[in-house]
Amino acid sequence: MISTSNNRLKYYNYELRERIQMNILQLEYVIALAKHKNFSNAADSVFVSQSSFSQQIIKLEKEIGIKLFRRTTRDVNLTEVGKEFVKHAYEILARMESLKQSMSAYSGMLKGTLNIGTINVIKNIDFNTMITTYYNLHPDIRINIIQAGTYNLLQMLQNCAIDIAFVTKPLQNNWSDISFTPLGSDTYALVAYFGDIRTMIPELSGQHIGIIRTPYRNYPDTLSS
């Protein structure tokens, strides 16, 4: 018995949902008519023709099976049910506006998650201060930091797995879809056993390499580029 009753109730709810297919415009039209109490003035306030406005009001009343307005030769007034309808219509439109503002905040990057990739060592920029300053300016944004090597981070950028990356600029110039902005520079030394390092690393072919004869730790010779 309980099961049958529940199924019947579900059927009635489904039938009601199928019959009532109101939209946001119809809610705005009802509120406009309740405010102006005149079809012509209400239609003008929402910038539509009076005939189109009237059709939408009639269509809505037919769909819900309830008269929202009491028409007279002088004006248009809400019925008791209409007053309840308008109350909820205001609440729905307010929620819709709140939803739009919330989504606009996400699209404008005022909320959400910022995925930042970084190599393990960053010496020439104050990374911690930079992140702290950004967070203070945008406290509703969650910052997710991912550490990896330069090439892995660049691939993550291409795959949209991260939004921005702090890397060393790669030697290969095959990242045309990624924009690089210099933040600092540093000097690096190549340390190896004495010999013609150019034969071991093809990228150094044709490059000038200075040889430092002073022993470095336990190595007999040091090469510096």
Summarize the structure.
By secondary structure, the protein is an alpha/beta fold. The chain has helices spanning 2-19, 24-36, 39-45, 50-64, 80-107, 127-137, 150-158, 197-200, and strands at residues 69-71, 76-78, 112-118, 141-147, 164-166, 210-212, 222-224.
Q: What's the helix-strand series?
A: HHHHEEHEHEHEHEE
Number of helices: 8
Distance between the termini: 89 Å
- Helix-and-strand structural type: alpha/beta
CATH-assigned fold name of the largest domain: Arc Repressor Mutant, subunit A
CATH hierarchy class name of the largest domain: Mainly Alpha
Number of strands: 7
Q: In one word, what is the shape?
A: rod-shaped
State the CATH superfamily name of the largest domain: Winged helix-like DNA-binding domain superfamily/Winged helix DNA-binding domain
Q: Helical proportion? A: 40-55%
Please write out the topology.
Layout lengths: L1 H18 L4 H13 L2 H7 L4 H15 L4 E3 L4 E3 L1 H28 L4 E7 L8 H11 L3 E7 L2 H9 L5 E3 L30 H4 L9 E3 L9 E3 L1
Parallel strand pairs: 3-4, 3-5
Antiparallel strand pairs: 1-2, 6-7
Helix pairs in contact: 2-3, 2-5, 3-4
